[in-house]
Amino acid sequence: MAWSGVRFPLNLLVNLAGCELLCLVMIVHLGDRLMEESARIQVTFEVFLVEKSYFCHKDGFDIVDRTGEVRAYCGPQGGRNFLMQDNHIRMRMYTDETVEDRGFRIRVKLFQSPCGGIFKGQRSGIIMSPHHPYAYTADSLCIWRIEAPRNMLIKLQFTSYFDIRSEDDQTCLMDYLAVSRTGNFSTDTKRYCGQTRPRSIISKTNKLELKFVSDCIEDGRGFKVRFDIISAYTDMWGSNGWWSP
């Protein structure tokens, strides 16, 4: 899918009113929640010549993801290729009443993650970060879903080193492994990062999901975790599991 500026490849149409000229919302719908959450949008600036200004406050092009984070671009940006961290973006071009330039041609396509998957009907299995035991790749987004029979729980046990680098091991904002003990990240999640191997984790229900995210810098050797399906009545703590500290 290619998207061009107004009158490309001629000069941009000057916007005398100073309002938005173009707006495109792109949302990925694949019919499966796991596939949708692991899908991302790849944006390529095939041609990009927009008036350069401080903080792109005159003419520019911005991309907004679902979290509200705004990335603004101006000046010569041709050839840039980057992967968004979301499957839902809004793109907007804006101009002022002064200098014109050639504009842009942008290609947008769906990027489906090569990692992740669904485990259903298996009593045990192994989940690893991409390229384990070697360093994981940058810009990774992997989601694994484990489903056990009714009245059963899922136990995770980390069997190897744990090496997920993040600028802050307390908040785990950059690279992290997130675990949902109910299989729903919107209501139940905890992030893990750093180099301390987490203790065993037991699900609250018969569903559990893991999400591995890395930023644009390759770092860390990742993780390896084994899952086992266990009876809900074998939880010796009398609860639905525990979090590692």
Task: Describe the structure concisely.
The chain has 245 residues and is an all-beta fold. Helix content is 2%, strand content 42%.
Ranges with pLDDT <50 over ≥5 residues?
Answer: 3-21, 236-245
Number of helices: 1
Q: Indicate the mean pLDDT.
A: 78
CATH level-four homologous superfamily name of the largest domain: Spermadhesin, CUB domain
Q: Judging from the principal axes of the Cα atoms, what is the shape?
A: elongated
CATH architecture of the largest domain: Sandwich
State the separation between the terminal residues, measured CA to CA.
Answer: 46 Å
Instruction: Report the CATH C-level class of the largest domain.
Output: Mainly Beta
Can you give the helix content as a percent range? under 10%
Report the sheet with the most strands, covering strand number, pairing sense and barrel closure. Answer: 5 strands, antiparallel
- How large, in whole angstroms, is the Cα Rg? 22 Å
The secondary structure category is mainly beta
